[in-house]
Hints:
The protein has helices at residues 3-11, 16-30, 69-81, 99-110, 125-134, 148-154, 160-172, 190-202, 229-243, 252-257, 261-266, 280-283, 299-312, and strands at residues 33-36, 38-43, 86-91, 115-119, 138-140, 176-183, 207-212, 272-273, 316-317. It is globular, with a radius of gyration of 18 Å. It is of the alpha/beta class and 327 residues long. β4, α5 (125-134) and β5 form a beta-alpha-beta unit. The protein has one domain (3-317): Aldolase class I (TIM Barrel), CATH 3.20.20.70. The chain binds 5'-deoxyadenosine, iron/sulfur cluster and FE2/S2 (inorganic) cluster (FES).
Amino acid sequence: xxxxxxxxxxxxxxxxxxxxxxxxxxxxxxxxxxxLRGIIEFSNYCGQNCLYxxxxxxxxxxxxxxxxxxxxxxxxxxxxxxxxxxIVLQSxxxxxxxxxxxxxxxxxxxxxxxxITLSIGERPKxxxxxxxxxxxxxYLLRFETxxxxxxxxxxxxxxxxxxxxxxxxxxELGYQVGSGIMVGLPGQTPESIADDILLFRSxxxxxIGIGPFLPHPNTxxxxxxxxxxxxxxxxxxxxxxxxxxxxIPATTAVGTLDAQGRQKALACGANIIMPNITxxxxxxxxxxxxxxxxLSEDASTCRKCVEKMILAAGRKIxxxxxxxxxx
Length: 327
Ligand code: 5AD
Ligand code: SF4
Ligand code: FES
């Protein structure tokens, strides 16, 4: 599909054919397995000021927390006990933790025979190298939008080219690399979304996270309106058709926008779910966007909930680590 065709499909209100085709491609390349990734949001400190994000440094209304490494290791062990073979360690860009301490923690967690995905933002290449050597398997770093002007406006002081550089380093170092975007950013166009999808393909990403932009009241973008769920689903479906074998999560943000959002995403291309396994006492403080789901459910409740969701969709729980499907 070329850019014009993607834009045309994205603009179309007729979605049933597109969604059915995406489901077919998902079936052919990924099968019926839905893999679980347990996410631990271990710190909500952030030195950045992304205009869209509730954790931005400028938001003084957030109570900030940091989990200790012992706490993180304990919760990683819990993930194994719950039958979750991959954990995603996510935080704001928090420079408090030293990379060498991180490495020691990764080393501890790898003893549980679990895959580790890091989602801790932009770092020097040397840090990425050390973390990989310590045993990290994967890294998530969304490029958010490939529209360079929009990117620079939304992430003050940062360039899109620096983001791409990080993604290239991560690939070079042998990580399985995930990236992604938000749909519905103010100023985003169908053309730029088509560029995003084509970039997913040219980067040969192992994972692609796509979620709605949900305006947060304590940010400069407060009061913006929510994107329609169909719009987000169209981007998921087109991404599945164009990238074929990338892992695509039915994101928590999609589930926040629409109570059936994750089920709908699973039916038009998604093959991953990320139950939240952050300890209960911290969940409400990791408010990237408002009204996030699962604030009062614990890890085991979310684990059971997603299992039910997967089985009800006629799918199976993925066995094993659910590593990249790319050859
Ligand atoms: N709405 C939806 N997603 C958001 N993110 C940040 N702020 C918001 C928001 N207001 C996403 C970004 C980031 C990821 C961790 O969360 O895509 O990469
Ligand atoms: Fe920080 Fe990430 Fe939020 Fe930007 S999106 S403010 S880097 S947590
Ligand atoms: Fe958390 Fe459903 S996934 S309660």
